[in-house]
Amino acid sequence: MSVDITIQLVRSKADLEDTKGLFIAYAESLGIDLSFQDFHTELDTLPGKYAAPNGELLIARDVDGAPIGSVALRPLHQPGCCEMKRLYVAPAGRGRGLGRMLATAIIEAAIKLTYREIKLDTLPSMTAARALYEQLGFRPTDPYYHTPLTGTRFLARKL
């Protein structure tokens, strides 16, 4: 990990507020309406479905403590299966491998929580993320929820 970046568990109220801000920036960067995922309720109830002991939220901060990235993990209905959500690196954190660091950290969290498989969804426009997921061993899988977004790609990785 870069010495000027820390990745930590989200546990304090300040961490939750900063994570909420990063989630909002993530949604805005997509340029799509996430209401089909009940995004506003997700924001209002954080940590919600990402809460321990079955989920996790991670936040990355720069050397000055500013929030520059986040990622989340939640259980899925399938036994032993979880989902990576909301991987986002703010513009100030880009170009330092932070996306890889966050994805690797949430995979490690999933292993600690004894999940056997991790899934995610991604959009065709997210070319850098798709390349990263492939490098981390994610492969195409069947859709595990209904989405109105054309071209959504579903990926999975054994843990």
- Our Rg estimate from Cα atoms comes to 15 Å
Count of helical regions: 4
Structural class: alpha+beta
Largest sheet, described in full? 7 strands, mixed
Describe the global form. Answer: globular
Give the termini separation: 22 Å
Low-confidence segments: none
**Widest sheet: strand order?**
1-2-3-4-5-7-6
Quaternary structure type: single chain
Proportion of beta-strand residues: 25-35%
Topology pattern, helix = H, strand = E? EHHEEEHEHEE
Overall pLDDT level: 94
Q: What is the β-strand count?
A: 7
Question: Percent range for helical residues?
Answer: 25-40%
Q: How would you portray this structure in words?
A:
It is a single chain. The chain is α+β, with helices and mostly antiparallel strands and 159 residues long. 30% of the residues lie in helices and 28% in strands. The chain contains four helices and seven strands, in the order βααβββαβαββ. It has helices at 13-30, 39-44, 98-112, 127-135, and strands spanning 5-9, 56-62, 67-75, 81-89, 117-122, 139-140, 153-158. Strands 1-2-3-4-5-7-6 form a seven-stranded mixed beta sheet, with helices on both faces. Strand 2 and strand 3 form a beta hairpin. The mean pLDDT is 94.
